[in-house]
Amino acid sequence: MQPISSSYLMTTTERPDPVLVRGNGSLVWDSNGHRYLDFVQGWATNALGHSAPEVTQALTAQAARLVAPSPAFFNEPLLALAQRLTELTGLHQAYVSCTGAEAVECAIKLARKWGRKQHHGAYEIISTRGAFHGRTLAAMAASGKPGWDQLFPPYPAGFTKVAFGDLDAMRKAIGARTVALLVEPIQGEAGVVVPPAGYLAALRELADEHGLLLVFDEVQTGLGRTGRLFAHEWEGVKPDILTLGKGLGGGIPIAATLGNARACCFETGDQGGTFHGAPLACSVALAVLQAITSPELLGHVRAAGERLARGLEACVARRGLLGSRGRGLLQALELGRPTAHAVRDACLAHGLLVNAPRDSLLRFMPSLRVTGSEIDAMLEILDRALGEAG
Question: What is the pTM (predicted TM-score) of this model?
Fold first, then answer.
């Protein structure tokens, strides 16, 4: 087959030349037969690795039965997934969509509907600087990614941003029109920024004190990524609204918004989407959840995360870097100099895929099933690339 030109695609992101054609576990191959160790995994989407057997089996079985009957009807995988998600989260009801951005958009709508019905018409949402909540206009308005406010103005109003991890700033920003606090338990796109211990629990107390909704965006941190099923479990707190995505489908597009009984106030016609809750994706999500919720896998994530963290700390000491941080299998390396893209490119040349979300920072999001030998191989290539990039 002749290679197809990339000129037919709209230019929306920077991509290297290799065209990926096949994957298995932590490995992918390009159209020229080159193999890569993948520590990006679709931005933490392939929770069980590339072409996980559970995903393949669920897709094959469900595709032979029912693919997309329309959300105007119930389907069995959707009902089963909603039940399973509420059991796992302890929340009341779920809405199933396709992407994390849609899940956040749904959470925003739900919070504003609740504010209109239960909180004197309040609609403003306080989020944090550096946050990433998705690429719909409302999700971008809620996000705090630098420069985004200049891309597609005017944005929907009603969003206030404060420093992440700063409880006093959050408290001072609350006003009569505030309806909800929206945070990522760990900021992923901002560079795996872990808040001070007790921050999430304090947000819960603050929301309760003012009668507000607490919304946790766990699109990236949820579903085992940090070594617990949900990152907020590390502080023993529970949100009123929770968003999930990425790893939920093990590579298949699916997301969910969950709310407790207090927050669930949608009425007929309030939310919808042509592919929302389709049985094909829901059946995959059920299979992924079964694998992720095994105690063995979560224990493995914690152990593998510790191994990865130790290796990154050794890189910091050996190469004179600024530092490393993270939790579980969501880790970052702060280089202290604007060489992240050069290091990423050197890693690619040596058969390793890593993510550089900032000029001076690398992010690591391997499969939750990554092995110790794969972590060690990644660290060896990374160290070589760090030396070459300077």
Answer: 0.97
